[in-house]
Request: fold
Amino acid sequence: MMITRKALVAAWCVASAAIVAPVVASAAVGVDIDIAPPAPRVEVVPAERPGFVWAPGYWVWRGSAHEWVGGHWIRERRGFHWVPDRWVQVGPHWHYERGHWAR
Reply:
């Protein structure tokens, strides 16, 4: 069976889209507001769970107020470390950075 050039190009495009789509979907989403987040809440971190990493709680902006999101376990990714969600002051504004894995 002979594969045509057109079929080969179409298959390559589909395979490329499957690789690129997850990268685009995981792009960081930022939020900038003028209201400082409250101080982080004190959380009691549960006992260690093999194969998991604790993602600490954080404040998220819900349109008109900050809302606390409690910490939770996430599956470990070998070779990476978890960078927690955080708010960074940039001039008079506050910028939200989503938690993510980094090498």
